[in-house]
Amino acid sequence: MRTQVLIIGGGPAGLLLSQLMHRQGIDTLVLERRSRDYVLARIRAGVLESGMVDLLREAGVGERMDREGIVHEGTYLALSNRGFRIDFKQLTGGSVMVYGQTELTRDLYQARDAMEGQVLHEVGRVQIHDLDTDSPHVTFTKDGRAQRIDCDYVAGCDGFHGVSRKTIDPAVLREFERVYPFGWLGILSQTPPVSEELIYASHERGFALCSMRNQNLSRYYLQVSLQDSIEQWSDDAFWDELKRRIPLAAAESIVTGESIEKSIAPLRSFVAEPMRWGRLFLCGDAAHIVPPTGAKGLNLAASDVYYLSRALQQHYNDNDDHGIETYSATALSRVWKAERFSWSMTRLLHRFPDQSPFDWRMQQVELEYLESSVAAQTSLAENYIGLPY
Ligand code: APR
Ligand code: PHB
């Protein structure tokens, strides 16, 4: 078998790249280790930068997002049960779109189906070969049978635990990492959101976040110790603790209910360099991870796909390899800025086990400065809505 761009990973990065390439007449094939239902069952975030919203519309998958997504022109930050608003619209003229990653991935699969895009699910033992030649190929198993696909390029969109990054020569690959000493306990509940916009709350007892999926599906998070287990956190214990950490008005008005999903996620900052090695390009979580505090994970996958899709279009349609040559540097420049923002939001809003009373006072004063400074708010707002591509 043969294709032009072989994409490993059928998550949002791989599917969006495949969709954009197909609309440009460039042939792709997606290899996904899991079943479609498994991929769609993953509960992930859902705050989209304006650049990603535009890219999804360009890819022809913006219709349901524009119909069901919620535009947010601001967000709330809170310190010790008292909140203040960051007005994105007034400060930057921009906004974000709240639309779940699960829904977005579903839209991408439907769009691939509509264009008869090739996505092979439940493949195994994916291995990448000859990336330092003009004709790489990928081997894998499907239904127990060994298969081979020849291609021009490989796009590694296979997430943090994928095979692509591990194929890069260890002598070339550089990895930067910060693992945070706490996790996020998240629940999904079929209750109306406590606030029209998100609330990022800093509290002596730890961080909390109030988010939503729609008018009757809410998503809440609590900073917890990595030693904690789900079993330790009954729904009642979760709601009680959440009420202690969020602004008083929200705590009094919040509608609680049974959780329909509950999970603990570790927090990590991670970047792999370079994002291109020979005929291999890395996109999304395969190359970088951000702590969710800045809502950048999905959006960084989209900007990688934006740069790579432009580069491949230039190569195939204009016989110009400038985009391919500069892909890694261009993508990494935006990745590191989002890493900085996500790290600074995490450092600002969470309680660190080893922090001193001075450290805690610094966090409080930094939030008070943010509340009083238009300049500081503008910096946060422009990073949150997304820096230009
Ligand atoms: N072979 C084939 N598929 C693989 C392999 C492999 N060896 N390893 C992993 N995969 C698949 C996974 O099953 C997954 O469906 O690659 C896909 C990677 O998808 P994601 O992890 O969703 O990564 P990405 O598409 O880059 O999206 C990034 O996902 O985790 C969130 O916060 C993150 O929102 C961000 C987004
Ligand atoms: C979410 O809705 O799941 C969410 C929103 C914002 C974040 C992280 C997660 O920063």
Summary?
Helix content is 39%, strand content 28%. By secondary structure, the protein is of the alpha+beta class.
What labels describe this entry?
389 residues, alpha+beta, 8-stranded mixed β-sheet, 6-stranded mixed β-sheet, 13 helices, 20 strands, globular, binds adenosine-5-diphosphoribose, binds P-hydroxybenzoic acid
Describe the structure.
The structure is a single chain. The chain has 389 residues and is α+β, with helices and mostly antiparallel strands. The chain is 39% helix and 28% strand. It has an eight-stranded mixed sheet. The chain has a six-stranded mixed sheet with strand order 8-2-1-12-19-18, covered by helices on one side. Strands 3-7-4 form a three-stranded antiparallel sheet. Strand 9 (123-129) and strand 10 form a beta hairpin. The model has no long low-confidence stretch (mean pLDDT 97). The structure holds adenosine-5-diphosphoribose (APR) and P-hydroxybenzoic acid (PHB). Residues 45-47, 198, 211, 219, 292-293, 295 line the site of P-hydroxybenzoic acid.
